[in-house]
Amino acid sequence: MRVIYHPILGDTKGGREVTIFFNGKPLDAREGEPVAAALLAAGIRVFRKTRKRGEGRGLFCAIGRCTDCMMVVDGTANTRTCITPVREGMDVKTQFGLEERNPSCGK
Ligand code: FES
Asked: Among 33, 70, 73, 76, whose Cα sits 20 to 30 Å from the Cα of 98?
């Protein structure tokens, strides 16, 4: 299943097929669709882990209003993947805790 219209990103259908990387693993995606949609289509449900308990979080609001879909995208932590459109070759990683505690964010 793919998202063909998103209330924030608009019309997302018709994007060419591209490859993105989730924790180093290549995944098929469509250019312009939300990163979160590409992950869900690949069966990935946990996008980040909470700081204190390490609990998994995934898609919740899907319109950029919460923090559950935040991941490290191309080295930038706290990226809301539900409102971030796919681009060829994106590097998407599970986020652990908050940005300042995330060693992969480069800070
Ligand atoms: S799921 Fe709420 S901001 Fe993305």
From this structure: 33
Total domain count for the chain? 1
pTM: 0.87
Residue 64, domain extent:
5-98
Residue 88 belongs to domain with CATH number: 3.10.20.440
Does ligand 1 have an atom closer than 6 angstroms to the CB of 46?
A: no
pLDDT, one tens digit per residue, over 18-56 is 999 999 999 999 999 999 999 999 999 999 999 999 999
| 40 C-beta closer than 6 A to ligand 1 | no
Nearest C-alpha neighbor of 43 from the set 57, 27, 55, 64: 27
